[in-house]
Amino acid sequence: MKKRSLFFLLLGLTLSGAGLHPLHSAPVKSGFAERDISPEIGMERPGGYLKGYHQAFHDPCKARAVVFDDGAKVVALVGLDALFIREPQVAEVRRRIQEKTGIPGEAVLIGASHSHSSGPTGMVLPGEFDHADELVQELAYEKSSAADPTYLETMMAGIVEAVTEAYEKRAEIRLGFGRGEEDGVSFNRRWRMKNGLSFTHPRAGNPDMVEPAGPIDPEVGVIGAWDDEGKLVGCVVNFACHATTSPPGISANYPWALEKVIRGAFGEDVVVVFLNGASGDVTQVDNASPVVAPRGADGAMLVGGSVGAEAVKVLAGLVASLTKEVAVDTRSRVLEIPRRPPSAERVAKSRALAAAPPAGAAALNDWIWAKEIVMLQALVDKEPVRRVEVQAVQIGPAVFVTNPAEYFCEFGLQQKAASPFPFTWPVSLANGCVGYVPTSEAMGPQGGGYETRLTSYSNLVPEAGDLIRDAGIALTKELKPGEVPAGQAAPEFKAGWNYGNVPPQLK
Ligand SMILES: [Zn+2]
Fold first, then answer.
1. Distance from the CA of 408 to the center of ligand 1, in angstroms?
2. 255 within some domain
């Protein structure tokens, strides 16, 4: 038996270079940690195409980390309260983590929650447009939402410290895996219209609305980690919805409420690692609602609180089926996907429009999209093809499949259907950001809408989504799913309860 394992191990190493599925004999170890990465008041608040600034504080933005170590391999998952994280910062964070802990870069998953009330991690990075002419530089650096170098360092240091602490704290732990469902708080924001196209946020009461143009994904994916005293140490929660329920001020957005509810049930020191699913076309806004929905902190509580309550239900049900026998593994692949270049005619018109200051709200709208085309052309000149990382991280019977996009919900459902794993949880805006990636249908003659606009932010070719989906599915098939822990078998029948085995006693 021993000889055979060794043979296969050698064969695996020789043939694939990656080795066989880890022969984990050691119980899984895990550690959780978090760091406050809140921006300062006065810093830019990213999420739009113009500049906006933080004026108040509501709750901290965090880097939330968990490390899993099966004795053969180690992986780290980071839930980041950020609109997104760009590739250069991901590379730097991975380099520092590898230096401090030895965890290889490709085994680190960083998923941004897409919080629209978080710190300045973009849209434009420092130096990104230095190659372009004066007009482009002015539009990019002075008129657009821009990352802050001080804040980028705060965020990167926070992630590295959280992962390093989680790694150092790792200890034997019992894990549970489960899923719940919350189908009342997220809505597809794209609607088929009577004109045959699909529009985004047509707004309640619009007489031209026909039906939603895409699905939602109600699954609440949960991994819970308990110590030997039976205390929940931390959990990972996966759910697909834009984090746009912005409480007033700097905020983790609805993950604030998610954490509040889980901590209320299991203790104030539980670390909640939230990873957003395929939510590019899914938000909290119900365009068909006849009534006004709760907003601000109330809206965040409706979404995060409901998902958190569902996670609490799942966690409560897991305690009888925990295991220490959990293998971890990772795969990743970098795709090269071209941008869609704007036409020369559109670029020329856009330059003329963008050079003059807009007068009035309607003109501002046109000016924004002209500015975006001008900036996009500069990006096409510098980098016509983007490197798009796809990663699969396995924790026992669960696999997280990443994309660096605002990825349409339908793709996530397709990945779930095709994956060999009992639990398949897509993670959007992971390890970078390439903007919106719609379905090819949305980019076709029945498509359209906000996400299909050509901008400096979203500009990959229409087949990008299919390529990313298929690469993710292929990676899940390279891994060997673990079994879902079943819990202790019921005892063999001996006798019924002898208080309960009598006919009705009437006198
Ligand atoms: Zn978005």
1. 11
2. yes
CA 406–ligand 1 middle distance (angstroms): 6
To which H or E segment does residue 214 belong?
A: none
456-478 per-position pLDDT tens digit: 999 999 999 999 999 999 999 99
- Ligand 1 centroid to Cα of residue 405, in Å, is 9
Coil, strand or helix: which one is 34? strand
If you measure from the C-alpha of residue 280 to the centroid of ligand 1, how many angstroms do you get, rounded to a whole number?
6
The verdict on residue 377 lying in a domain is: no
The label of the residue with tokens 């019921």 reads 490
Cβ–Cβ under 8 Å, residues 403 and 426 = yes
State residue 313 phi and psi, 5-degree precision: -60, -45
Residue type, 333: R
Element (H, E) at 155: helix 149-169
Q: 155-186: per-residue pLDDT in tens?
A: 999 999 999 999 999 999 999 999 999 999 99
Residue 40: give the domain boundaries: 24-341+384-478
Torsion of CA 49, 84, 54, 93, to 10 degrees: -130
Q: Rounded to 5 degrees, what are φ and ψ at 238? A: -120, 125
The tally of domains found in the chain comes to 1
Q: How far apart are CA 501 and CA 478, in angstroms?
A: 53
